[in-house]
Amino acid sequence: MVKQNYKTLELPAKYVPKKSEPYMCLEQQAYFYQLLMAQKQDLTNGKNDVLNAVRNTDSNDFASVGDDADNASQEQALTMNLRMSERDNNMLKKIDAALDRLENGKFGFSVISGEEIGIMRLMARPLATMTVEEQEEYEANK
């Protein structure tokens, strides 16, 4: 018999993790794995669109557009695309870190205390690395 793992486990279409299940059981791991992989795929697709838009904006385009307002608008669009690309890169790094924690059995547990983060918090914020209390304390001390 082949042992199931969270990467290959097929979940029911409407599966949602429940508090009544053992914390970070195989089904929950599979759920978060699929969720994170879908987010990663969406970001990767969007990143390619943004990078293509940036690549297609040649510096000569600014000179040929016309008046100063058009040039400023074009430059603002380029700057926004670059910021979006940077934001997406940061998000991809966080998703990869979450996938690593999942692989190492540390997903769903605080990086500070090792306590359970909680299913409800992970449902709201799958990239969470701390409990609500730890996050609040962290933000208060910023």
In short:
63% of the residues lie in helices and 0% in strands. The chain is mainly α.
* Span between termini: 51 Å
- Percentage of β-strand residues: under 5%
Helix and strand element order = HHHHH
Number of strands: 0
CATH architecture of the largest domain: Up-down Bundle
Compute the CA-based radius of gyration.
Answer: 21 Å
* Uncertain residue ranges: none
Q: Can you describe this structure?
A:
This protein has 142 residues and is mostly helical. It folds into 2 domains: 22-106, Up-down Bundle (Four Helix Bundle (Hemerythrin (Met), subunit A)), CATH 1.20.120.910; 108-142, no CATH class. It has helices spanning 26-56, 59-65, 68-103, 119-124, 132-140. Helix 1 packs antiparallel against helix 3 (68-103). The mean pLDDT is 87.
Write the SSE topology.
Elements: H1 26-56, H2 59-65, H3 68-103, H4 119-124, H5 132-140
Helix pairs in contact: 1-3
Structure characteristics:
single chain, 142 residues, mainly alpha, Four Helix Bundle (Hemerythrin (Met), subunit A), 5 helices, elongated
